[in-house]
Amino acid sequence: MSFFFTVKEGIKGLSRARLATFLTITTVTLSLFLIGFFIALFINIDQWLGEKRKNIEVEVFLEPVLEQTKIDQIYSRLKGIEGIERIEFISKELAAERFKKEFGQDVQAVLGTNPLPPSFIIHLKTGFRNASAIRAISKKIEKIDGVTEVVYASGALDLLDRYITIIYLILGGLGLVLIVITVILIHNSIRLIIYARREIIEIMKLVGATRAFIRRPFLVEGFFYGLSGGLLADLFLFAVIYLTKSYLYDRLIMPYPVYGLLLGLGLLVGFVSSQISINKHLNTLL
Questions:
Q1: How far apart, in whole angstroms, are the C-alpha atoms of residue 129 and residue 100?
Q2: What's the pLDDT at 5?
Q3: What is the CATH number of domain 57-152?
Q4: Positive or negative CA dihedral for 237, 240, 246, 249?
Q5: pLDDT band at 1, cuts 50/70/90?
Q6: Residues near 115 by Cβ (< 8 Å), separated by ≥ 6?
Q7: What is the pLDDT of residues 162-202, one digit of tens each?
Q8: What span, in angstroms and rounded, lies between the C-alpha atoms of 24 and 185?
Q9: SS3 letters for the chain?
Q10: Which one, 62, 212, 265, 274, has the greatest CB density within 10 A?
Q11: Closest to 270 measured CA to CA, from 27, 17, 4
Q12: Residue 113, exposed/middle/buried by CB under 10 A (0-12, 13-18, 19+)?
């Protein structure tokens, strides 16, 4: 009986303060929706960067005149460096063909000779497509005998990594702020409800109700705030993701576990914030 009474009283408490309930659920929904939106943004930025980083290449230029055995030795050394996924050899002749495709000029016809050196184009593994990892790999390659130069877009990579870090910090900070705002809002709502029902609480105390018995309905209210906010946030986020994929960007991704995460976060925030409020404000009455 005590369980059903607790749930019944918790629901009654919501109906007694309808405006506070509406504002709290609305704000919790908005906060969780924005957190979900930032998570989706983070995931898709990371996905987009992963696709762009697949195109990152490190070109290793060799001495103009090398015997095939020496080239094979360099290739073996490169294969042994951690982080290198695939190596493509570009001979002098192939380099001349690539030059002609890019610039529309036959270097052999213009200069009467082919001054372009042979090279290796290196493709990196997933975890090594950032500025610091490529810099470390390049230093190892430069020490190999027969290598004259290692070229990659170092400036662009440094800039990309710097700004992406800033973006991730901003998204994380905004998400934390939204969680704090949600906790404060539920905390204040529970406080107002406790204050409005202070006479009932005093009567329950006089007739012998335990502290735990008095606390439970308020925990149900906090749980309901989190549950309602989480479900509504999931619903709105799903609708936004669906419409965005349908009409704006069909490659948008949103893993389904994120919806469960938002619901769980709503329940956790509702429970924790109601606990804090109950412990703080019931102490003045009990």
A1: 29
A2: 56
A3: 3.30.70.3040
A4: negative
A5: very low
A6: 64, 107
A7: 888 888 888 888 878 887 887 777 777 767 766 766 777 77
A8: 6
A9: CHHHHHHHHHHHHHHHCHHHHHHHHHHHHHHHHHHHHHHHHHHHHHHHHHHHHCCCEEEEEECCCCCHHHHHHHHHHHHCCCCEEEEEEECHHHHHHHHHHHHCCCHHHHHCCCCCCCEEEEEECHHHCCHHHHHHHHHHHHCCCCEEEEECCHHHHHHHHHHHHHHHHHHHHHHHHHHHHHHHHHHHHHHHHHHHCHHHHHHHHHCCCCHHHHHHHHHHHHHHHHHHHHHHHHHHHHHHHHHHHHHCCCCCCCCCHHHHHHHHHHHHHHHHHHHHHHHHHHHHCC
A10: 274
A11: 27
A12: exposed
Q: What is the pTM of this model?
A: 0.71
Question: Two tokens at 97?
Answer: 């063909």
Residue 89 tokens, joined? 């050899």
The domain locations on the chain are: 2-51+165-280, 57-152
pLDDT in tens, 109-165: 767 777 788 899 999 998 898 888 999 999 999 999 999 999 988 777 888 888 888
Cα 1 from Cα 260, distance rounded (Å): 31
- Extract the tokens encoding 3: 């369980």
Interatomic CA distance for residues 84 and 71, integer angstroms: 17
Question: CA nearest 186: which of 266, 260, 285, 283?
Answer: 266
Say if residues 141 and 60 touch (Cβ distance below 8 Å).
yes
C-alpha span between 14 and 222 (Å, rounded): 10
